[in-house]
Write a structure and sequence with these properties.
174 residues, five-stranded antiparallel β-sheet, mainly beta, four-stranded antiparallel β-sheet
Length: 174
């Protein structure tokens, strides 16, 4: 069972940035991924696709934006926000190659959890470390298609939804 129960009610940290600034930061991350520049690296030399890549963003407990993308090598790569823009892309490890783009969500502890589908349809997840990289990847099972969709409810529990590969029903893991 995949559930994370917060020891107390989760309250998002106050953010000093205006909503427009937050949207601007997210737009900058999307531009870095899709616009051809990845932390100053020419798209031709980048370790991940810049034309049709799949990316997701979240804000971690250190209040930095993290962008996670599916690379040419079918691995997930992440870049964390820094004072000067974004840090160089870092592979998130694990032995699996992914068959879907990443899905990210901030959990009740403020950590960012990354979910993805591997060939064969099983869903896997890992928690990003604020210092960079990811923890061990865990397998949630399933035979799914498409990208999983994780959410955190008002009690701090994570729930993951995905589409069944056999009958296209919505699968739930919570």
């Amino acid at each position: 069972m995949f559930s994370l129960l917060a020891s107390s009610a989760y309250t998002p940290p106050s953010v000093d940035a205006t909503p427009a600034l937050a949207l601007e930061v997210q737009a900058e991350a999307a531009t870095l991924v899709t616009g051809g520049l990845l932390s100053g690296v020419d798209a031709a030399d980048a370790p991940m696709p810049s034309d049709q890549c799949s990316a997701a963003t979240a804000i971690g407990k250190d209040r930095r934006l993290v962008a996670v993308a599916l690379g040419y090598d079918s691995q997930y790569w992440a870049s964390w926000q820094s004072a000067g823009g974004f840090l160089p892309w870092e592979a998130l490890g694990g032995s699996a190659h992914f068959a879907s783009g990443p899905a990210v969500v901030q959990d009740a502890h403020g950590d960012v959890a990354v979910f993805g589908r591997v060939p064969g349809g099983r869903v896997q997840y890992a928690t990003l470390r604020a210092a960079g990289g990811a923890g061990d990847w865990a397998d949630l099972g399933g035979a799914t298609i498409g990208r999983p969709a994780p959410i955190m409810d008002s009690r701090g529990l994570l729930h993951v939804f995905a589409q069944s590969a056999t009958d296209h029903a919505v699968l739930y893991k919570g």
